[in-house]
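Incident log, structure service

09:12 report received: a user says their structure output differs between two submissions of the same chain.
09:20 pulled the input from the user's history:
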Amino acid sequence: MNYFYDDYIVELSKKFSARLEDIKADYNFELGDEFEIAICEILRKFLPTKYGICRGFVVDSNGEKAGDDIIIYDQLDFPTIRTNKKDDYSRKENIPIEAVYAYIEAKHTLNLESFEKSVSQIGKVKRLCQTRKKTDLYQTDNSVGDYIDRGNILEHQPKYRNPLLTIILSRYSSNIENKKAENEAEVQDFLKHFHRLFPSDDSSPELIISGKDNILAVGYLNKTGESVGTLFYPDNGFQIGYESLIKKDLAFGIFLCHLMASLNWIRLGNMPWVDILNQGRKN
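09:34 re-ran on a clean worker, output below:
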């Protein structure tokens, strides 16, 4: 099969896998921090420079934090307070919820323990970020205007423009016996069996990439009973579920394309710089 733009998604998957192999010489991927750092380095090569990449926590104005893995944020409007070298991902950052585009739980091997931890972390990050002010569908200036619930103008997209994207990304997976999976069918069984751990609300992840072949993606059944995949957890009132897919050697490319499509949709709100300034002046 030929894919768009001269097999673009195929080449993405190949380059992602090849880059992992290159980096493996420098890191022991059995250690979680080192795998996270490797994924940060790969994403930095792929994403446009306006998207910042770091490891750390999302934080609200009251100082409440959540997370611990990879954050993609708006580095044009929010420069982090880095004391280390650029593109050194060993130090963890605190990123305001208003500046966050996406949160990724990166696991070298997805097993029951890491799966449960990832689902829990994502739920906490989502619930915290959902307290930020929503950006209206027709808002062109993030400093002017308020969110109005207009319903789903596009059935498959959210009612607002600054949802949070959450992903679980792993290089390998276990099977339902919690041993390293030997083939993609075992990984599918693992994903189908354990995705019941997801909370039955919008604090669940949008996408799970379990190795180079396996995907679990959120979607819904429309009024005709057709399964529709979505970028974000649906808020359109239809029946929500997850589709389990085997895409031989394509999962990493699908991850990158899903990420870029989601970033392209998101229009973040305003960083409250004036509030930060006024508080600094008064206290």
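09:41 both user submissions now match this output. Likely a transient worker issue. Closing.
09:42 reviewer note: The mean pLDDT is 91. The first strand starts at residue 51 and ends at 59.
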